[in-house]
Amino acid sequence: MLPIIQVNNISKQYRVSGSSSVAPTLREALMAKLKSSFNATGNHANDSGLFWAVKDISFEVNPGEVVGIVGRNGAGKSTLLKIISRIIKPTFGEVNIYGRVGSLLEIGTGFHPDLSGRENIFLNGAIIGMRREEMRRKFDDIVAFAEVERFLDTPVKYYSSGMYMRLAFAVAAHFEPEVLILDEVLAVGDVAFQKKC
């Protein structure tokens, strides 16, 4: 069986905001050295203000597999998912995905706060690659799954975070991707909706 996702030696480096090229004072240099000896994440910035959010990650996912990525805050989980979703580019390495990808990484990505739920279904569907005919065919199912029927013509800026998330998830789930990437977005949903997903 051929993998649906191949991640090969992915690394992502960032520059720490506020780092300067000016030589630090002796006190600053000593404090930085002391702080770095207590930093256990392994992702801390080096002397040039650069740090590795993700370094040398490789894995494969086969069709039908469910994979969870677990780690502490700041470990690079979201960065890795954004690279796989092709939102950001890796510094090194490559990702190969075979099939349609649906990503729900942050609440509201692809939604416009001033548009209604109805309008955002079509906007978000277009952004993730649904054809208009496909969106029309699935519209009622998306609305029913999201449980936002009464608020469909209300701008989503007035939705609770749970309603917002349910609508975004419903659109992504009905996209029927071969690969669905989620990043903690279901944490804002109630228990009943989490079980439904």
Describe the structure.
The protein has 6 helices and 5 strands; from the N terminus they run E-H-E-H-E-E-H-H-H-E-H. With 197 residues, the chain is α+β, with helices and mostly antiparallel strands. The protein has a 3-stranded antiparallel β-sheet with strand order 2-1-3. Strands 4-5 form a two-stranded parallel sheet. Helix 3 packs across helix 5 and helix 4 crosses helix 5. The longest helix has 15 residues. The chain is globular, with a radius of gyration of 20 Å. It starts with a strand and ends with a helix. The mean pLDDT is 82.
Write down the oligomeric state: single chain
Number of strands: 5
Using the CA coordinates, give the radius of gyration. Answer: 20 Å
Number of continuous helical runs: 6
Tally of discrete structural domains: 2
Strand content: 15-25%
Question: Numbering strands along the chain, what is their spatial order in the largest sheet?
Answer: 2-1-3
Whole-number average pLDDT? 82
The portion of residues assigned to helices is 25-40%
N-end to C-end Cα span: 27 Å
Q: What sort of overall outline do the alpha carbons produce when their principal axes are compared?
A: globular
**Which stretches of 5+ consecutive residues score pLDDT under 50?**
none
Helix-strand makeup class = alpha+beta
H/E element sequence: EHEHEEHHHEH
User: What is the makeup of the main sheet?
Assistant: 3 strands, antiparallel
